[in-house]
Amino acid sequence: MSATTRARQAPDSSRTVSRAARLIGDRRLPVLVTAALFLAMYVAGLSRYQNYGFAEPQVFLNLFIDNGYLLVAAAGATFVILSGGIDLSVGSVIGFTTMFTAWMVERQGLPVLVVIPLALAVGAFGGFLMGYVIHNFEIQPFIVTLAGLFLFRGLCLVISKESIAIGDASVSSMAQTQVSLGGAFLSIGAVVALVVLALAFYVLHYTRFGRRVYAIGGNEQSAMLMGLPQGGTKIAVYTVSGFCSALAGLLFTLYIQSGDPLHATGMELDAIAAVVIGGTLLTGGSGYVVGTLFGVLVLGLIKSIIQFEGTLSSWWTKIATGVLLCAFILVQRAMTARGKP
């Protein structure tokens, strides 16, 4: 090989390495990977279960119907994780909301339209208190929200140690409401979840508050030097998470039509997993709420494939989730390592 040929190949290989490095450092990479994973899984499902109705539009829409409450909870968790925090109280707030709603409607006889704003207010206030303690007492979010987890789960048992079935006609009517989409449909819970997702996307990407969330999660010291209101922003993201958790609890109540002190146990981990699989960095400052949508859809699709397979235990959902989490954490590690000098 001549010296001239080697000289030509060296810049080409250098450019290839440079393009690969830029791709690894691109913040959109995890979202694109998650979207590609979802598409590959869906195509595989179409191929394997084509004789079992997997290609029906309703099967796809069922991903939103069956996971609408998780999408709302994960959207709220996205705000917290983007800010560099964590919220472990999500599942307990969802469980408490189901108990609170069932108790107020069935035992106290209040109309569901009165109970809904009360439940949302309780969830938002709980998030506000946790955010206030985290900021003003400088306690790690893990500890404060863990306390919130035990508090709200304990309140479930204070209300009742037994499950409370909801037989109210208005609740049943809301649960059975369908939005027709040609030959398929969406439930009212799925529609609410998509509206929440759209609002979260707008707030994070087109408002001053959203830019503050990214700035604080990216570099808290720099955000402080820039004069950004750290305290107010931190408290606000936990308030948003508490509100979304309560709303997810209401959607879960419509989905299951009962309250139980054990409802949504561990769902905070599902929400965090969906956010991480969707490409949001656990260290904060990088991620997209659209990625959270794909994270939820991937988890929902895993459940659907296991159901269509018929021979696999539901525990395979947890195994698959764990494998995906490890894979995406490695992707995050590669991205953060690339960003270091």
Helix percent reads over 70%
In total, how many beta strands?
A: 4
> Unreliable runs, pLDDT <50, ≥5 residues?
none
Rounded to an integer, what's the Rg over CA atoms?
A: 22 Å
Q: What general form does the structure show?
A: globular
Nearest-integer average pLDDT: 90
Largest sheet, order of strands side by side? 1-4
Main beta sheet strand tally, sense and closure: 2 strands, antiparallel
N-end to C-end Cα span:
36 Å
Query: Strand pairing plus helix content: what structural class?
Result: mainly alpha
Order of helices and strands: HHHHHHEHEEHHHHEHHH
Number of discrete helical segments: 14
Strand fraction equals under 5%
Fold blueprint:
Layout: H1 3-25, H2 29-48, H3 57-82, H4 90-107, H5 112-136, H6 141-159, E1 164-165, H7 169-176, E2 178-181, E3 184-187, H8 188-206, H9 208-218, H10 220-225, H11 230-256, E4 258-259, H12 267-277, H13 289-309, H14 315-339
Antiparallel strand pairs: 1-4, 2-3
Helix pairs in contact: 2-13, 3-8, 3-9, 3-11, 3-12, 3-13, 4-5, 4-6, 4-11, 4-12, 5-6, 5-11, 8-9, 9-11, 12-13, 13-14
Can you give a write-up of this model?
With 341 residues, the chain is mainly alpha-helical. Helices cover 76% and strands 4% of the residues. It contains 14 helices and four strands. A hairpin with a 2-residue loop joins strand 2 and strand 3 (184-187). Helix 3 (57-82) crosses helix 9 and helix 4 (90-107) runs antiparallel to helix 5 (112-136). The model has no long low-confidence stretch (mean pLDDT 90).
